[in-house]
Amino acid sequence: MAELKDLVRQWLESGRVDLFLGYKEVAGHPLPYAFSRDNLEEVAELMVSPARYSLEKLAANILKARPGLRIGLLARDCTRRAVNVLTIYNQVEPGQVELLDLSCCPSRPQVSCSALTPPEVGEVKRALGLDNRLTPEQFEAIPAPERLGRWLYEFQKCLKCYGCRDICPVCFCRECSLEHGELVEPRDLPPEVPMFHWVRAVHMAGRCIDCGLCEEACPVDIPLRLLYRLTNRIVRELFGYDTGLTLTRPPFSVLGVGPAEPREAAGGKGR
Amino acid sequence: MYKLVPSICSYCGTGCGVLFEVLDHRILGTLPLKTHPVNEGRLCLKGWSLHEYVESDMRLTGPYLRINGRLHQVTWERAIGFAARRLTEIVDRYGPDSVGVLASAKISNEENYLLQKFARAVVGTNNVDHCARL
After folding, report:
1. Which of A90, A258, B12, B97 is packed most tightly, with the most Cβ within 10 A?
2. Based on the domain organization, do B105 and B122 belong to the same domain?
3. What is the least distance, in Å, from the CA of B27 to any CA of chain A?
């Protein structure tokens, strides 16, 4: 931890980054906190939080208003994958974000971070819905005719809070299909079952970095992580594309001016 | 320049913890406070949209009075004076129970206390109710 604080202080002092997003305890809560050269003494209070926030999304929001800044991030594996996806989709320029890796999360093969606080799975959910802790393989052990019914049970609980989209580090579209009146009927609750969630699932193909924040934010425990894992498994099997691990464009990027130039991977060195 | 400010959602009485992204004194967005004991990192649609009304151009920033069928922005003194005069007239003419007071989940305990005190001690009615009873 002392080594980590020294590095952050060094990054700020040397001007390698203008802002460093880490965590600090504020009002009794571990909160994301922006350290800068103006508050160097506070770096002593830098901490590693068990509660995960999408620091990369916060950084992308800051950069939209202040493109000239260089921002350092305390990075878990999912942060690194998210920054790669944000770079591919031009939400973050290479060099704007520097990652300070944190080996806090043995996440490859990807660990279920929502397993840190596993949602209670009650009897009804077990009987009618899907256990959030299922792996894609366990899911496929469920007889095929039963699967759709179980998804429908989960989807009909949806409150349409848009939390899955709003918390998602790789959701940034200016116009969202989920708010499009032609695709999703306004005023309906639950939002059209199962289309609402399928629309989002399709958009997560080649984009979801399996951080699990959506599932943690879901007020009704829909197993979103499982849904997007299943979606991205198709992408992996059909196109050999591993989302977030490299800066290669996903197979669905058909728009644009020809093949993308290979870019330098997200900056920053491991500890 | 940039900070995350913990707060409580002002939409209903549940009291979910929220976090405002603040850049240069403007609220960019709202996040659920993950370690808050009430909502444990979840929010409803309203909580997620808290920042929108704070920064909205449509937001009322002062009192309005309808004069000759049209709303005019007036001083607080004038607005409160008008409300006080009309309430007094109504109470005098129809009695205290012709007035009802609707309290709110969106204001503090102390403000709600003052509101019932106003209803009971000033107006003289027990007609006090609250949106949570809908």
Report:
1. B12
2. yes
3. 11
Give Cα separations from A73 to A54, A93, A124, A131 (angstroms). Answer: 10, 15, 41, 33
Same domain for B89 and B101, yes or no, is no
Range of the domain at B23: 2-54
The average pLDDT across A56-66 equals 94
**Is B134 part of a structural domain of the chain?**
no
pTM (2 decimals)?
0.83
Structural domain count, chain B: 3
Q: Is A30 on the interface with B (CB under 8 A)?
A: yes
For the segment B12-68, what is each residue's pLDDT rounded down to a tens digit? 888 899 999 999 999 999 999 999 999 999 999 999 999 998 888 998 989 999 999
Greatest Cα pair distance, chain A, in angstroms, is 60
Find the closest chain B residue to A166 by CA distance.
B48
Note whether B15 and B48 are same-domain residues.
Answer: yes
What b/e sequence results for A208-240 when a residue is b if at least 16 CB atoms lie within 10 Å of its CB, and e otherwise? bbbbbbbbbbbbebbbbbbbbbbbbeebeeeee
**A180-222 tens-digit pLDDT:** 888 888 888 899 889 899 999 999 999 999 988 999 999 999 9
A211 near B CB under 8 A:
no
Does A65 contact B44 at a Cβ distance shorter than 8 Å?
Answer: no
Q: Would the CB atoms of A30 and B35 count as touching at under 8 Å?
A: yes
Nearest 10 degrees: CA dihedral of B111, B115, B121, B126? -140
Q: Is A33 helix (H, G, I), strand (E, B) or coil?
A: strand
Residue-level pLDDT at A115: 47
Query: How many Cβ pairs closer than 8 A exist between chain A and B?
Result: 73
Mention every residue, 6+ apart, whose C-beta is less than 8 A from residue A234.
Answer: A205
A52 CB neighbours in chain B (<8 A) are 34
In chain A, residues with a C-beta closer than 8 Å to the C-beta of B34 are 51-53, 216
State whether B26 and B43 are in the same domain.
Answer: yes
Query: Is residue B107 domain-shared with residue B117, that is, in the same domain?
Result: yes
Going from N- to C-terminal start, the domains of chain A cover 2-101, 113-239
B→A contacts (Cβ < 8 Å), by residue, are 1-4, 6, 17, 19, 21, 23-24, 28-29, 31-36, 40-45, 47-48
Identify from A62, A69, A74, A113 which residue to disrupt to test chain B contact, counting B C-beta atoms within 10 A and taking the largest count: A62
Is the domain of B88 the same as that of B116? no
